[in-house]
DNA sequence: AATGAATGAGCCTTCATTCAT
DNA sequence: TATGAATGAAGGCTCATTCAT
């Protein structure tokens, strides 16, 4: 896999092929390959040469699309951030209790962490960026954190969540989720969806005024509201 | 602050001063300064020159104590790992339920994460080490993970922990804790102890067959067995 | 002299000039300059900076053509070795007595020793090479030695050379020739050709069953037996 | 052998032993070890640390006896040169034909080349010395060369050697001999004496007006049928 | 748009040498 | 005399970035 690479699947510069696709398509292809290489080897060990070669182009060609290595890094991050922004926007528009929103966020965020661009949100180091961009990243991180806190605070207010310190609770939950970006390996025994399901329960159950099981249990019928996570109790 | 540095507090090579302290003391001083610089700037951006200068010595002098930059990195990690090993050993020797051990581990591990050497366990990248050492690191990480899982499994067996998937539960808890190493800043509003207290409850409450409060509540009087965490409800 | 250098004569990177010559031409130009600098200053004292500067380029530019300093050293050697291989191949194809071949080899080898690449065969130290290449060098040296011995043995067999120990005789002759690489200075009073002529006679006359002069003078039978040298006929 | 080293045989700084031997003895011990290391690894690759360690002392201790690495190199050379000077002095005082002297020189020089200090005469690079010493070396080399030429010229004058160009003949002979310093390995199949014997004949036979055998044969009584033993006439 | 070639900047590492003890 | 510790000097190598084509 490392040798064949996935160049054939991803590169718009197919050798001996038409090279007329749109500029943005190529730009994105660079980002997809770059994020992969950066995650695989680490930003500093990864060279633009490696990125370029896997795309069947040469290093200077990258400079047609990006001004610098750190700009590529930033754009990778930005794509991941966009996903999170969208996902938060959707949840914000939904009508749910604080706990519901929190769970939705945990689930969606967990899934995002299992993607390359999602992982780039937590695996890349803002200090590698120009101050200008580093600040954007930090602001966005703060934004996500605040979202977690807000959902928790909402939950406390609407009674769906037990009183607690939203700040630390948010840290705990976000930490768990962010860590997924560090250990998740595509092709492992756990699917992103399974992980997301499990985390959505696990991380919020302690906060819920009524735990999932109890809630459903008390609510009489509904023997099981949640499907058993693959591998549970294994 | 960058200029004054904290050299005066940490360096055994006080300029124009006695230089007779023991070799091991100096070796450790190098590590303390190195881990600080590495955490502050990131391993790749940090230069040995910077480390040396802050110690009032020159770069080659470092080579009296270490063979290479990556060996320094490894030794930093090793010091952190030692802390964790010790801490696990103590807990292993204790007579507690699985849940008790888990909470003890969470608490101690959280505190460790708030130290430089502790943070180095999760902020440094094993890929920067020589394969030889990288393997040691990976093995140790596996060891910690297994410890978390073991305590959970014990807890399930002894009834102190609700049935769950020990693997994912361990990931969730360890993730939360590891993340502390990324966000904790000395001098912030939260003390390591406060964080540890909170996390020890927060991360295990969802797992406990009986939550802290409920347990104490049901246990008749004993309105509260745990001290209010500093800053709780803040 | 050090300042003017001979850059103008040898460098394809003429400053402010066309820079379009072929890559191989440049690669070779690097080798020509490198062998010169290495011989002039010795491999260890010579720096790549010096080589580059004389070529009107910068040090890293050399890495476009070679992977490391020792690879350059090896390639210099290889070019000299090629010359010798060619020269041996020609002699091997010729129809001559063993003595004839030996003389031809001595002559051609002597001339080679008076060239930069030829001298590099004996002035460079294989221990400066990577084991991989060092082994190639050693093997090639053995090959040359064996060629000398073979010609001598052939000569003994065909009667053109007096019985003697081919091994030591080869050492003696090759030593004389190799030493040329150490003392020959371009621009001295002796031309390579004159040296080669003289050595071809001098080094083989003692071996010839009939010396050059005697053979032509006496032009007669005059068989002679001499006692075999210790170790001869081994 | 490399591991045990020969420290125990050569070092006056035997650990846990009396350390009171004379300064000059130590100085010489350093030189004996240094020349060995320098020959074994090459002057530049060899470090003073290595030399010191093999002597069971530390690097700075060497500076009690020598001012610099290159001074050590020079002294090694000087010791070898002394041997050659002595040997030439003896031959100069002897009453022999030019050919006789030449043969004696060849024999003795060949044997010297098989010693460490002798090899240092031809394996070390004067350019590694300070100009001051380098000049001494060059002068001495010229001296040796002139001695060869002188003996040859004497031989031509006294009729023991065929007319020839003394300069080139000297180069040829000295080259052969010098090369011994490059290929001779202690413990090989050839003893220094055997090599010297063979070279004394081989290298001069071509020059002799009458070859060894012829001379003895024609000279009727054959006062000496046996080769002159090593050091004979010395 | 793409490339081959080149550069500038910088860092790790080595080692002879010095210094205080 | 010997040593541990430290330094200064230097060189090889890497790589992001630029330039001319």
UniProtKB/TrEMBL annotation, chains A, B, C, D:
<feature type="region of interest" description="Disordered">
    <location>
        <begin position="209"/>
        <end position="234"/>
    </location>
</feature>
<dbReference type="InterPro" id="IPR009057">
    <property type="entry name" value="Homeodomain-like_sf"/>
</dbReference>
<keyword id="KW-0805">Transcription regulation</keyword>
<feature type="region of interest" description="Disordered">
    <location>
        <begin position="1"/>
        <end position="20"/>
    </location>
</feature>
<protein>
    <submittedName>
        <fullName>Transcriptional regulator, TetR family</fullName>
    </submittedName>
</protein>
<dbReference type="InterPro" id="IPR050109">
    <property type="entry name" value="HTH-type_TetR-like_transc_reg"/>
</dbReference>
<dbReference type="InterPro" id="IPR023772">
    <property type="entry name" value="DNA-bd_HTH_TetR-type_CS"/>
</dbReference>
<dbReference type="Pfam" id="PF00440">
    <property type="entry name" value="TetR_N"/>
</dbReference>
<dbReference type="InterPro" id="IPR041490">
    <property type="entry name" value="KstR2_TetR_C"/>
</dbReference>
<dbReference type="GO" id="GO:0003700">
    <property type="term" value="F:DNA-binding transcription factor activity"/>
</dbReference>
<dbReference type="InterPro" id="IPR001647">
    <property type="entry name" value="HTH_TetR"/>
</dbReference>
<dbReference type="Pfam" id="PF17932">
    <property type="entry name" value="TetR_C_24"/>
</dbReference>
<dbReference type="InterPro" id="IPR036271">
    <property type="entry name" value="Tet_transcr_reg_TetR-rel_C_sf"/>
</dbReference>
<feature type="domain" description="HTH tetR-type">
    <location>
        <begin position="24"/>
        <end position="84"/>
    </location>
</feature>
<keyword id="KW-0804">Transcription</keyword>
<dbReference type="GO" id="GO:0000976">
    <property type="term" value="F:transcription cis-regulatory region binding"/>
</dbReference>
<keyword id="KW-0238">DNA-binding</keyword>
<keyword id="KW-0678">Repressor</keyword>
<feature type="DNA-binding region" description="H-T-H motif">
    <location>
        <begin position="47"/>
        <end position="66"/>
    </location>
</feature>
């Amino acid at each position: 896999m490392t040798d064949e690479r996935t160049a054939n699947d991803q590169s718009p510069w197919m050798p001996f092929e038409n090279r007329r696709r749109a500029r943005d398509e190529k730009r994105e292809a660079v980002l997809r390959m770059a994020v992969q290489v950066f995650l695989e080897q680490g930003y500093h060990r990864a060279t633009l040469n490696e990125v370029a070669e896997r795309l069947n182009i040469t290093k200077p060609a990258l400079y047609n699309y990006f001004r610098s290595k750190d700009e590529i890094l930033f754009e990778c991050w930005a794509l991941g951030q966009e996903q999170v922004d969208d996902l938060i926007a959707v949840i914000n528009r939904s009508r749910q209790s604080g706990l519901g929103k929190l769970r939705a966020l945990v689930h969606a965020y967990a899934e995002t962490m299992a993607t390359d661009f999602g992982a780039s949100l937590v695996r890349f180091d803002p200090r590698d960026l120009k101050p200008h961009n580093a600040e954007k990243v930090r602001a966005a991180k703060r934004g996500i954190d605040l979202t977690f806190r807000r959902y928790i605070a909402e939950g406390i207010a609407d009674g769906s969540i037990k009183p607690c310190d939203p700040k630390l609770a948010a840290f705990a939950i976000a930490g768990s989720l962010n860590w997924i970006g560090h250990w998740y390996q595509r092709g492992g025994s756990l699917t992103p969806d399974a992980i997301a399901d499990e985390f959505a329960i696990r991380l919020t159950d302690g906060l819920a005024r009524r735990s999932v099981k109890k809630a459903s249990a008390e609510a009489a019928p509904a023997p099981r509201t949640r499907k058993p996570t693959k591998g549970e109790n294994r």
